[in-house]
Design a protein that fits this description.
Blueprint (H helix, E strand, L loop, with lengths): L19 H15 L1 H9 L7 E2 L11 H18 L10 E2 L4 H10 L9 H25 L10 E2 L3 H16 L3 E11 L4 E2 L5 E19 L9 E6 L10 E4 L4 E7 L2 E6 L3 H7 L6 E7 L7 E3 L6 E6 L11 E4 L5 H9 L26 H14 L3 E14 L7 E10 L1 H14 L1 E3 L2 H11 L4 E2 L1 E2 L10 E2 L5 E2 L2 H14 L3 H4 L2 H4 L15 E2 L3 E2 L1 H6 L1 H7 L8 E7 L6 H13 L4 E7 L2 E2 L16 H7 L2 H8 L8 E2 L2 H23 L6 H4 L8 H22 L3 H28 L7 H21 L4 H8 L26 H26 L9 E7 L2 H8 L4 H4 L4 E4 L7 E2 L3 E7 L3 E2 L6 E2 L13 H10 L1 H4 L1
Parallel strand pairs: 1-24, 2-3, 7-10, 8-13, 17-25, 24-25, 26-27, 28-29
Antiparallel strand pairs: 4-5, 4-16, 6-7, 6-12, 6-15, 8-14, 9-10, 9-11, 12-13, 16-18, 19-23, 20-21, 20-22, 28-31, 30-31, 32-33
Helix pairs in contact: 1-25, 6-12, 6-16, 6-17, 10-11, 10-17, 18-19, 19-20, 20-23, 22-23, 22-24, 23-24, 24-25, 26-27
The structure holds zinc ion.
C-alpha cells in the first residue's frame, strides 16, 4: 500500500486561477437572468431603508477610470448595506441635457440644425443621449455594479422633467426666482452664459495697459487736468468704462512727471515708477481715497463723464489702486455702479462682437478690439504703457476658450435669500472627509446668485410666460399645468406649441388684457436638472425617501451637484437632500500625473476588465485611500492581482479541507471545540467587528486590509499551517479534525460574506463550492454580527494571545536553527522550552498538543538546557529530533520502527491505518 493513499489531502473543484476575463461575463449574464438585484430587494423588503442616491454621470462617451472608481465605491456601500440589516435600493441615473450633446451632434455627427425645427433637433439630442446611456450602462454593468439598470432615472424622461418644473415653480412661488440684468460669465464660443461650475482657469496671454483719465472736476482735492491712472488686462472693456473706483481708506499721491500730474495709490508708487520708467517723479500732494468721492473725470476717447466711486474691492496687490469700472463687464463693477445709481452698458453681443453702442468698434470681435482700443488711447495721449503678460484667466470648461463678463438679461435663483438656511443645513449633514464641510460652507457663503438660464435649446425650458406688457407670468396654476404637459408629452411640447396652447384652458392675466401671451425661450442650467433629482427620484420614486442617506461623488461636486442639490432642496423643503456626503479624489497615473491622451497614460476600466477582470479593478478600488487623489498603473494592478491570488489560495485551502464536511451532521458543539479552535473563532469575531466598523465609515481600504491580514497571519501562517497535521493525518471522523473543520466552515462562510461587497464575481463562484450553503447566492445572505464564543472566557483570550507571543519566540529559534543547519524543516526539531516568567509557564503547561501548534515533532517543557538561548519569554534549545521520520505524517518519532507490520510509520499513524484503512492493507 501507499501511505499517501491514506491521507486526507484537500480536494476541491474551485480552481487556483480565476480566469476572470472569461468567467466574469458568464456570471453577469446569470445575474441578469436571475434578476439578482430584484431578488436582493425582495429579500430585504421591510428593513430600515438606506438610500444611496446616484449622482448622474453625463451621458456622453465611454467610461473613464474616475467613473469606475465612483460607481464601484457606491456598489461597495449598497452591497454591504443590503447584507447588513438594511433595505438598500440603488437606482442609477443619467444627466442628459446640455451643450456637450448639442456639440456632439453638430460637430461629430455633422447635423445642420438650421435645417430642422428646434423640436426635431431636440429629438435627435434625446436619441443620441439614449444611445450613450446604453453604452455606458453596458460598461457599468461590466464592473459588476448591481442596481436597477432596467429602470434608471434619466433627466430627459417626462416624469423627471415634470418634477423639475415643480421645483422651479416652488422656488418661484417662494420669491427666489427673478429676472435681472447682470454680468455673468459668458462664453462667446458657446454663445451662452456659464455657471461658475463651468469655468476653469487656464493661462492666457493678455495685453497689460496703463491708461490715464483726465480729471474734469477735482472738487478741490485733485487739480483739474491731473490724470488718474488705471491698469487693465482687458483693454476691450474701456469702451464700456463708466467709472473709476478708489478705496476710501487708501492714501493716494499726486505725482508730477514731465509736466503732467498723475494720481496713484501711495503704496503702489514705487512699483509704478519702475513700470512706467519714471525717473524724476515728484509727489506734490496726497489725499485719502474717501475725499475723492464723486470727483468727475473724462473718458479717454469718448465724450463721456467718468465718476470716481469708492469701493472696498480695490486692493494694492497690483495695478495703481485706481480701478477702471465697466459695470457691464465685471461683477464688482456692476455692484458698485449700482450703488451709485449708474446703469451698466454692455456693447458686446452674444458672439463677443461689439455693437453700435460702442462707436468706432461695431463689428469687431472683443479680443481683436484690444489693439484698436490701445491705438485710440495712444492717439489721445492716454496710453502710458503697454506690454503683454500671461495670467490665469477664466475659460469655458467645454470649449476651452476664454470667457468674458457680459451683462445680459438672465434668470436667477436668489441664493442670498436662503443662504443662511443652507449654511445651517450644512452643519446638519455628516461630511466625509471632514474638510468637505468647510469646503462647501465657504462655497455657499461666498456664492453669488445662481444664474439658471441658458440661451440654448437642448434642455428643460424655463416655464415662464409673458404678458402683452412684457411682464413674466408664473403661478401655481401655470406651473402645475406645464408640469402635467411635460409628464404627458415631454418638454418638447414647449417648442412645438404656441404660448396660448401651453397655458391652462381659459387662462387670463392682468398682464394680457387681450389674452395674448408669449413664452420664455431660454432653457435651464443643467445643474438645475441634476439638482432636482431629490424631487424627481427621492420624493417620487417608489421605495425612496428624501433626504437620502448618502450622496457620493468626486470632490469637484462640492461646487457642482452637492451644491445645486442642496440649494434647490433647501429652497423648496427647507432641508438638505442628504444626511451624509462622501467625496472621492481623482485618479492619477503611477507617477501622480493626470491622465491624458497626450501623455498616453490613460488606463481605461474596460481594458482592465477585459485583461485582468472586474474583480481586480474592484480590489484596487478597495485598496486605495480614495478620499484623496489615488494612483493606478500596470505595476499597481499587478500588486493587486497578487493580493487577489492570495485570497483565492486561502479560500481554496479552506474549501479543499471542507470537501468531506457536512455542517449539519459533522459539526462539533461550540462548547466542545478544542480550545485553539475556540480561540480562532474568537479571532474571527474580532475580525467581523473590525471590518464592519470600517465598512460602516466607508473605509474599505482598512476593512479589506484587515481581511487580508487575517488571511495571511491568522490563517495561512498559523491556523491553516499547523492544522494540516490533523486534517490530513487523522481519520475523517476524528473529533479533533471535525473540530477544526467546524471552525473552518464558519471562517470560510464569514470571509466570503465580508468579501462579497468587494469582489462579487469571485465570492459568488466560491459560494457554489460551499457544502450545504444557507442560500442560493451569497448576495442573499447577511454578514453575521460578531458574537460571544461559547465556553471562551477573557482569561482564555489572554492565555492564547500570550501563547502567540511565545510562539513568536519559538519561530525565531527555529529560524536560527534552520540557518545554522541544525534542522531542515521545523518538523525535524525537538525543542526544549523553559518559561522565563510565571504567566508563560502557566500558558505553556496548560496547552495540550503544544508541539503540534508550533509545528515541531516534540516539545520538552520546563527543562533548562545548558545550551539554551534566551528569548523574550522563554529560554529555548533546538536539536534535531533523534527519532525516525514517519513516512506518512513526516513527524519525527522514536516510535517509528516499533510496528513490524508498518515499520516506516509512527504509532499514531499505525493506529489510524489499522482502524480506518484496514481494507487497503489486504
Ligand atoms: Zn506518523
Amino acid at each position: 500500500m501507499e501511505y499517501k493513499d491514506t491521507l486526507l489531502i484537500p480536494k476541491t473543484e474551485f480552481p487556483m486561477r480565476g480566469n476572470l476575463p472569461n468567467k466574469e461575463p458568464l456570471r453577469r449574464e446569470a445575474w441578469d437572468k436571475e434578476k439578482i438585484y430584484h431578488q436582493v430587494q425582495e429579500r430585504t423588503e421591510g428593513r430600515p431603508l438606506f438610500v444611496l442616491h446616484d449622482g448622474p454621470p453625463y451621458a456622453n462617451g465611454d467610461l473613464h477610470i474616475g467613473h469606475a472608481l465612483n460607481k464601484i465605491l457606491k456598489d461597495f456601500i449598497v452591497r454591504y448595506k443590503s447584507m447588513n440589516g438594511y433595505h438598500a435600493p440603488y437606482v442609477p441615473g443619467w444627466d442628459t441635457h446640455g451643450l456637450p450633446i448639442e456639440t456632439a451632434l453638430t460637430k461629430q455627427k455633422k447635423i445642420d440644425r438650421k435645417k430642422m425645427s428646434i423640436a426635431e433637433f431636440r429629438q435627435m439630442c434625446a436619441d443620441y443621449a439614449m444611445e450613450q446611456i446604453d453604452n455606458q450602462r453596458t460598461q457599468f454593468k461590466q464592473l459588476g455594479v448591481r442596481g436597477d439598470w432596467e429602470e434608471p432615472y434619466i433627466t430627459l424622461k417626462n416624469e423627471y422633467e415634470a418634477a423639475q418644473i415643480k421645483v422651479f415653480g416652488e422656488m418661484a412661488k417662494q420669491g427666489y426666482i427673478y429676472k435681472g440684468l447682470k454680468p455673468v460669465y459668458w462664453s462667446p464660443s458657446s454663445e451662452s452664459a456659464l455657471a461658475e461650475a463651468e469655468i476653469e482657469y487656464q493661462d492666457k496671454r493678455s495685453p497689460s495697459i496703463y491708461v490715464s483719465y483726465e480729471v474734469r472736476d477735482g472738487k478741490g482735492v485733485i487739480p483739474n487736468g491731473a490724470e488718474i491712472i488705471i491698469w487693465t488686462t482687458t483693454p476691450w472693456t474701456i469702451p464700456a468704462s463708466l467709472g473709476i473706483s478708489l478705496h476710501p481708506d487708501l492714501e493716494y499721491d499726486i505725482v508730477e512727471v514731465d509736466g503732467r500730474q498723475f494720481v496713484v495709490a501711495h503704496d503702489l508708487l514705487p512699483a509704478l515708477e519702475e513700470e512706467l520708467k519714471w525717473e524724476d517723479a515728484k509727489v506734490v500732494d496726497s489725499f485719502m481715497g474717501r475725499r475723492a468721492d464723486k470727483i468727475m473725470a473724462k473718458h479717454p476717447f469718448y465724450d463721456r463723464d467718468i465718476l470716481v466711486m469708492l469701493g472696498t474691492h480695490v486692493t494694492t496687490e497690483a495695478g495703481t489702486g485706481c480701478v477702471h469700472t465697466a459695470p457691464g463687464h465685471g461683477e464688482d463693477d456692476f455692484y458698485i455702479a449700482q450703488s451709485y445709481g449708474i446703469e451698466a452698458i454692455c456693447p458686446v453681443d452674444e458672439l463677443g462682437v461689439f455693437t453700435e453702442e460702442a462707436p468706432g468698434f461695431a463689428g469687431l470681435f472683443y479680443d481683436d478690439a484690444n489693439k484698436v482700443v490701445s491705438e485710440k488711447l495712444e492717439e489721445n495721449n492716454a496710453l502710458l504703457a503697454l506690454k503683454f503678460i500671461t495670467h490665469s484667466y477664466p475659460h469655458d470648461w467645454r470649449t476651452k476658450k476664454p470667457t468674458i463678463f457680459r451683462a445680459t438679461s438672465q434668470w436667477f435663483a436668489s441664493i442670498k435669500d436662503f443662504r443662511q438656511n443652507i449654511l445651517e443645513e450644512i452643519k446638519e449633514v455628516q461630511w466625509y472627509p471632514h474638510w468637505g464641510e468647510t469646503r462647501i460652507y465657504n462655497m455657499v457663503r461666498d456664492r453669488e446668485d445662481w444664474c439658471i438660464s441658458r440661451q440654448r435649446t437642448w434642455g428643460v425650458p424655463i416655464p415662464v410666460f409673458y404678458g402683452e406688457n412684457g411682464e413674466p407670468i408664473i403661478t401655481d396654476e401655470t406651473v402645475s399645468h406645464v408640469s402635467k404637459l411635460f409628464a404627458e408629452h415631454g418638454s418638447n411640447i414647449w417648442f412645438e406649441k404656441e404660448a396660448e396652447e401651453l397655458l391652462p384652458e381659459g387662462f387670463t392675466s392682468e398682464h394680457s388684457p387681450n389674452g395674448k401671451f408669449t413664452k420664455e425661450t431660454d432653457i435651464m442650467d443643467v445643474w438645475f436638472d441634476s439638482g432636482s433629482s431629490h424631487e424627481a427620484v427621492l420624493l417620487h420614486r417608489e421605495g425612496h425617501e428624501r433626504p437620502a442617506d448618502i450622496y457620493l461623488e468626486g470632490s469637484d461636486q462640492y461646487r457642482g451637484w452637492f451644491n445645486s442639490s442642496l440649494s434647490t432642496a433647501v429652497a423648496v423643503t427647507g432641508k438638505a437632500p442628504y444626511k451624509s456626503v462622501l467625496s472621492h479624489g481623482f485618479v492619477l497615473d503611477g507617477e501622480g500625473r493626470k491622465m491624458s491622451k497626450s501623455l498616453g497614460n490613460i488606463i481605461a476600466p474596460s481594458n482592465i476588465q477585459k485583461q485582468m477582470g472586474a474583480d481586480i479593478l474592484r480590489l484596487w478600488v478597495a485598496s486605495v485611500d480614495y478620499q484623496a487623489d489615488v494612483r493606478i498603473s500596470q505595476d499597481i494592478l499587478k500588486q493587486v492581482s497578487e493580493n487577489y491570488r492570495k485570497i483565492r489560495n486561502t479560500i481554496r485551502f479552506l474549501l479543499g479541507n471542507l470537501k468531506d464536511f457536512n455542517p449539519k451532521t459533522d459539526s462539533i458543539e461550540e462548547s466542545e471545540l478544542e480550545e485553539v479552535d475556540r480561540f480562532m473563532l474568537y479571532r474571527l469575531q474580532k475580525l467581523i467587528k473590525k471590518v464592519k466598523e470600517n465598512y460602516d465609515v466607508f473605509d474599505f481600504a482598512t476593512g479589506t486590509h484587515d481581511i487580508h491580514h487575517y488571511m495571511t497571519i491568522d490563517l495561512s501562517a498559523f491556523y491553516l499551517d499547523f492544522a494540516k497535521d490533523i486534517l490530513y493525518i487523522e481519520a475523517a471522523d476524528n473529533k479533533r479534525r471535525r473540530s477544526i473543520q467546524t471552525v473552518y466552515y464558519e471562517t470560510l462562510v464569514t470571509l466570503v460574506k465580508l468579501l462579497s461587497p468587494i469582489i462579487p464575481h469571485t465570492t459568488d463562484e466560491i459560494w457554489e463550492h460551499i457544502n450545504d450553503a444557507e442560500a442560493d447566492n451569497v448576495q442573499l445572505t447577511d454578514i453575521p454580527e460578531p458574537r460571544e464564543v461559547e465556553n471562551f472566557s477573557d482569561e482564555l483570550v489572554e492565555k492564547w494571545q500570550h501563547f502567540m507571543n511565545v510562539r513568536s519566540d519559538v519561530l525565531k529559534g527555529l529560524e536560527e536553527a534552520r540557518n545554522d543547519k541544525t534542522i531542515g524543516n521545523s518538523l525535524e526539531a525537538k525543542i526544549y522550552i523553559e518559561a522565563k516568567d510565571d504567566e508563560t509557564k502557566e500558558v505553556i503547561n496548560s496547552i495540550a498538543h503544544l508541539h503540534q501548534y508550533l509545528i515541531v515533532s516534540e516539545a520538552v517543557l520546563n527543562e533548562s538546557h545548558p545550551e539554551a538561548k534566551e528569548y523574550q519569554y522563554i529560554n529555548m534549545f533546538v536539536e534535531k529530533h533523534p527519532g525516525g521520520k514517519c513516512s506518512r505524517c513526516w513527524t519525527m518519532s522514536e516510535t517509528v520502527g516499533d510496528n513490524a507490520e508498518h515499520p516506516e510509520v509512527c504509532n499514531r499513524c499505525v493506529e489510524v491505518i489499522k482502524t480506518h484503512y484496514s481494507h487497503l492493507i489486504d
